[in-house]
Recover the amino acids of this structure.
């Protein structure tokens, strides 16, 4: 019988949030790849238009977007490794919560290493 408190099977725990974040990060990566293929193909149609598009990529907005892209790629890759362990390691389901928090901590550490360098690159320091 379903719980009357939420009306859903999802409880908002690590497994659900991991699933949601993995799908969102995967879609963001897909959208980036689509845009990247289209803007690269533009060079064959009009080199001037290509140069104009690439010029927009040097703005602060796109620099911040690049931080988001790197964050999405790192989370998706680390969580993908966690999913492989959950699926193929006999103790994976037992430790999936601690592995999720390990992914989050490692992701934060990697982002702390990347973001300052990216900001220095963006602001010419």
């Amino acid at each position: 019988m379903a719980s009357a408190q939420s009306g859903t099977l999802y409880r908002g725990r690590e497994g659900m949030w991991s699933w949601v974040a993995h799908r969102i990060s995967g879609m963001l990566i897909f959208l980036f790849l689509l845009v990247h293929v289209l803007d690269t193909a533009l060079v064959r149609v009009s080199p001037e238009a290509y140069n104009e598009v690439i010029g927009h990529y040097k703005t602060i907005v796109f620099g911040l977007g690049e931080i988001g892209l790197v964050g999405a790629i790192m989370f998706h890759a680390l969580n993908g490794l966690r999913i492989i362990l959950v699926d193929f390691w006999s103790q994976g389901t037992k430790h999936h919560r601690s592995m999720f928090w390990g992914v989050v901590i490692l992701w934060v550490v990697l982002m702390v290493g990347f973001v300052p360098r990216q900001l220095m690159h963006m602001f010419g320091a």
